[in-house]
Design a protein that fits this description.
Helix content: 25-40%
Largest sheet: 5 strands, mixed
Strand order of the largest sheet: 8-15-14-10-11
Radius of gyration: 47 Å
Shape: elongated
CATH class of one domain: Mainly Beta
Structural class: alpha+beta
């Protein structure tokens, strides 16, 4: 019996300790919830909803952080941000002081290293540029007349683009960092049709060969009718035809027609 009573006594003591500990935990939580909130950051206060907020004159920042809130006495540009106390900066991608100016950077186009493209889109044009101080471009674009191309590569000193397809023409060109604001430019690129030039060269070659053949025939015929000695073996490839012909009168028209026909066949 004494053992059973001892066990029951120990169980009751443990239960009492658990109840006391839990009650103490609840009391501490109630105390913490009812205690006044203290904001960590500067220029903040506790609202009636018991949360930290920025003071009216310091609308920027995080009232729950150690940094707190801040403001700019001089209003920032419409495209600027109050980054810290009385410090305005321009939004990403813009340049300026953040107060009076926040503008899109425009490259200063100085020169182009290639001014000729083909109509089928072959060719690369390198634009030599200058960028605003401290600005590092994130994008590059080229404009050929109304056509806009994304740059193959770019940095603070050059923008390189491939030529777009176009008809034969001379187009004004320009460059941009955003595809919206373009550099002032007096440069032009010429688009040429090299395929047409190849056809022209081939046609000229054929005409030259045809005229050469005609001249050769005229010279041969002149020598023939004037009795000027000609080594038949040197007249190629007409010597075989000539050697197998039956001698006819010089003025025989059928002989001349046969001769021209042999030229066409050979």
């Amino acid at each position: 019996m004494r053992v059973i009573e001892l066990v029951c006594l120990i169980k009751n003591m443990i239960s009492a300790l658990i109840i006391i500990s839990f009650s103490g935990f609840l009391n501490r939580q109630i105390h913490l919830q009812s205690a006044p909130l203290a904001c960590k950051g500067s220029n903040t206060y506790v609202s009636k909803d018991n949360v930290c907020v920025c003071l009216p004159d310091f609308p920027f920042g995080n009232p729950d952080s150690h940094t707190g809130c801040w403001g700019c006495d001089t209003p920032c540009h419409k495209n600027g941000i109050c980054q810290s106390q009385n410090q305005c900066v321009c939004e990403s991608g813009l340049i300026g002081d953040g107060i009076k100016e926040c503008s899109k950077p425009v490259p200063d186009l100085k020169n182009i290293e290639e001014s000729s493209c083909t109509t089928n889109g072959d060719g690369i044009v390198t634009f030599i540029i200058e960028t605003p101080n401290g600005f590092v471009p994130e994008f590059g674009y080229c404009r050929f007349g109304p056509r806009i191309s994304t740059a193959l590569s770019f940095n603070t000193t050059m923008i390189i683009c491939t030529c777009p397809q176009s008809r034969e023409s001379v187009l004004p060109v320009s460059v941009s960092f955003d595809g919206d604001t373009w550099a002032l430019s007096n440069f032009f690129v010429t688009f040429v049709n090299h395929e047409f030039e190849s056809v022209q060269v081939f046609a000229i070659l054929l005409i030259f060969l045809f005229l050469s053949a005609i001249v050769s025939v005229i010279i041969w015929y002149y020598q023939k009718i004037n009795g000027i000695g000609v080594d038949v073996d040197e007249i190629l490839p007409l010597n075989k035809w000539h050697m197998h012909q039956i001698h006819q009168e010089v003025g025989d028209e059928s002989n001349i027609l046969d001769f021209l026909l042999n030229i066409a066949i050979n």
